[in-house]
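User: Please predict the structure of the protein below. I'd like the answer in structure-token form so I can feed it into my own downstream comparison script.

Assistant: Understood. Taking the following sequence of 1196 residues as input:
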Amino acid sequence: MDLSVTNGTNRSTFDMQKQKAEALAVLNGHTNNGHLEQQPTIEQLEMELPVVLDGQISLGELLSRVMQAIYAELSELAETLPNMSDTARKRTIADWVVKTKKQVVKLYAVTKWARDAETVQKCMNITAFLMNQNDQFENVIGGLTYARESLDPARRGYPLRNHDLLTSLDVLTSGTYKQSSVRDQVQKSIIPMSPMTDVEVIKTLSDMEEIMRYRLRMTEIIPVEMSQHQIAGGRVHFTIPSLFETSVCMRGADKDDGWFFVGVKFLISIGGDMSGADEFPQEPTGVLKLHIANEADSRMAYYLPLPEPVDLPPGTEVPERPKLPEGTVDAPLVRLYNFLQTMSLSYQLQILWYQAMRMCSLGWGQYLKAELLDGNKTLSVSYWLRPATTVVPARAQALNRLKLPPHGGTLTISIVENRASPKAGGGPARSPGARMLSELQLKAKLGSARPSDEVEGLKFEVKWEPTKGMLGVIIDQGDTMATIGELSVESNDLDFEAMLHRIINAHARAILKVFQFQLQRGPTRNVFSSEGKVVLDSHGGYHVLRVHLCADKVVLVSIDVRTGRMHLQDTGDLAAASRGPRFAIVSDRLNDNPTMLLEVLVRLRFDTIMDLIEQKANYLGLQAFRHRNFSKEEIKKLGPLARGTMYIKLANFPSHYLVLVIIEEDFRYALISVKVLSDSMYGNMIMEDIGWLDVRRIRGEKRPPEVVIDPRAEDPRVGQKRKRDAGSLAQNTLRRDDNFNLETQTLRELYAYCCARVAYTKVEAQFKLRGIPYTHVSPTSALSQSSTLSHIQSSLASSVPALCVQSSDILSGAPAAEAAMANIRVMPLNWWSDKKAEVVTCVKLKYVQQPVGKRAAAGRSSNDIIRPSKRIIYDATEAVVSFLSEQVDTCVDEFLEEWARVSKMVVIAREVAQMAKEKKWRDVRLLSFDLQTVEFAYSSDYTVLISCTDQLSPTGGSFELRFSRCAPPPAPLNPKTLAPPHTITSLQLHLRSNPHEEAEPYLRQILRHGSLAPSLHRLVALLRDTLPIAVELDRLAMGAREERVLVWSEREKHNNSAEEPWFDTIVKGIGWWRVLYGDLKHALDLRLMTGRRIAILDASYPLFQGVVAPSLESGDGFGSHPSANLERIGLVPIPEFRMLILDAVRATRPRTSESGEGGRRIAPIDVGVVCESGTIGPVIRALHERVLWKLRGAGG
């Protein structure tokens, strides 16, 4: 039966109709089954939109930046708040909370707005799409306009030809179409033939299956790879694992009828990103299926004759069909297998290429190059492409020395022949069993003949070739391939991205492994050879080289799998906000020259160490500098191993620095003093002195030995001894796991120790300048527990020695040196804090004098401690006086000055306290003593307060005396006391002043002559002896003032302008008072004499002129004075002064007799009268009244 015509329809006509229907369906949006083609989804349409990121910022990046800033500020507050006061701490926290709250609120608002970010992004993408479409429309309009303008002149000058010439000739010659076949074909395509019934169709298909089964078993050559097949539905279904499934059918039942292609399904599965899976269906459709069908039919019918042509134009030659050679049997299924095998592998290669190109469009474009070669049989992918950079002339020479490869490596996937070795018999590579089955089939079906075609064995060959010198290293490809394993293309999981990531990760790991080896075994092995310093971590296919720099700082060296560029990153993402730009710059430079990795890591290590030191110094409020204006020669003084320095200026001593010298394995600490060269243009500095510090000894692991330094020694090495004791070289410090983990407390203690060392040096320099030997003593007994300075301590107190000097040395020539014990301790203070440095000098007195009085109580800080002034603290229990000096450079001078003042006050207080017992002066008592002043009562309620100033002046300093009166005692005084009687109450109601106050300028001079104790006794005796004179004169002056008030009021009543005579009292010297009367020509002198006698004299006569006084009987003994002396003195004798004296003595003696004293207390002389101090009151009053009456009468 001829099956070429089925159901009344010719197969060629049927195929043509099918092709037209499929083409029409494609044009009209229909599928082959007549249904509408599925419309693209919204997601697919959105993927076609261009992505516009102009002005957009990632919300995650914004959140990360804000969190990093908040974390950094919290870390800084945690370090700085403990050093603040409570008020400052609260204010700082409140300000920080307000500021951070504003930032968080803004961030919250931005987060709310970010909910619409997807919609805004979609609108921007649509806008960009419309703008691109508008540009295309405009380009099309322009192109059409250009075509019209270009073709119009051509049409007018050269008319276009009509290509349908044959039809035109038929119409012109015969008036109708001669080609009737076209009309017949159109009719047949429109008018369908009668369809077959179901039974006929089933019967036809069953017959065809039997014919195909017979043909396949008996004559048709079937490749061994296609041996798995089944016959069903009128066709043969072949299954080739991992390649394809195909179905074919026979053209007819004749022996010469060939096979035609029905369909194919590629046995592939796309892995990874499934976004492009729809473009590569397993069962091709449409144009692709038509192409495969035509090519498959053409190959299978290669040796079959063509059907007879119908209505060929005359003269048309039909090409001759190929013929089989003699002894050759046609093998169409072999050709089908070879074709579909090539198609399957090419299809898979196209999928891999599509995935590679998709990666390029998703961010890999600049760093990935994918191309098909060898007629689309080879996929070559180069990764880690280095973009071409414009070479700056200044950097051209540097770049020429290091030429980096253009890419990191190449992955090649090729379709190659899989041939067996000649020893195995050649042909496609097969297993021995498959090869045996093939040979048996050929012998059974062909006999001695041979098939027209042989099976082509094809396979994928995957090669990876890393470029030598990528990132400046050469990796071991064999070890890397062992890590990767076998590279192959799996048809059930086509994922090019996974394959590329697998290779790139292995390549990156191999490079990092070489870097690890170079760090641990190369020039930097002293730094990074320790265990755990350089670790290669691999997690989830991500490889990173963890390089421990110092302390808790670790830098991550990674290679970006996309770009192939090295990245340096800090582990603390939140704390690394400020270091991010630096790492970015370092990474850029490192990618320009990857061989600098070792140098960069070492430099980054030192920079990180410097950053840590600087950060901790800033937390402590210290002023740190990375560079100072030192020359190279000066920097070499810090040692040849120095890799970096940090200079921390001592706030209290600007010319001194704590220097942290960084070497490869540890810190070295030095204390330097600098000097600015005045003659240099830029203020260059030089290091005058360098002292190395031993941190272990400073922190109390070892106590410093006691060293006695005598500045009078002639050995110059004495000064060097102190420097060596200040600290030994840092190389003696024990090695630790991490020597660069400098704690904030350690830095604080080092800074404090340097301040202490400088302060001690300045104090020692003052001792040396004065030739005072000193001793370093243990600081454990520096201050007693009861001392008020015991709370002013530091954790380094056990490492900082105190200075001890002998009182005989430091107080040599100072006043009251005998009051101090032998040892005097000197200690600088406040060197551990930000306050100004001070020096305390502790002196233990030989005797204890308890402070008394209101001033002592006001300065008392405890039961036994008083602080009379800012610079003096006195422990009365221990008899220790502590002198505080605010200036370290002048602390010795200030101590000597304060000592001169305090020691004198102590001596005065002691002598006053003993006077009542030793001198039998019962009314002398100590009222107040606070080391700065001494106040005591020298008679009754008459007091004097003594203080001293300028004790180190060339003149020997001076004393200040302040006279006053205290509250009167409740009980009456002893009648034998020298104090005036308390019967005159009217005069005591005026201001309670001490009449000795006017004599203070003369009295103060007594204490400046001779030893202090005898001088004090003379002063007190003088005050007691002259008190009656001063008190009586004060009474006279007060009575005169009251009388004058009465006289003035009386004068105002009578309008009398006459002036009344007046008098005044003047202190002329020690124990010398003068009563000057109103005419300024007459005066009385009151002088203290030995034996507590008082002389009342006419002031007009000099006391030491040697004039012989006349006897009392002469009556006018004053006339013998020369007139020259009177003119020289300026005073004139009091008229009838002798008569006034006798009258006053007679008026006074009865009163004195009643008192039991007798007349021996009064003795008239030629120019006055002499009396004892107990009778001065009545005598001076009587004589003053008579003199005043006499002068008033004379004036009248």
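That's the full token string. The chain has a mean pLDDT of 79.
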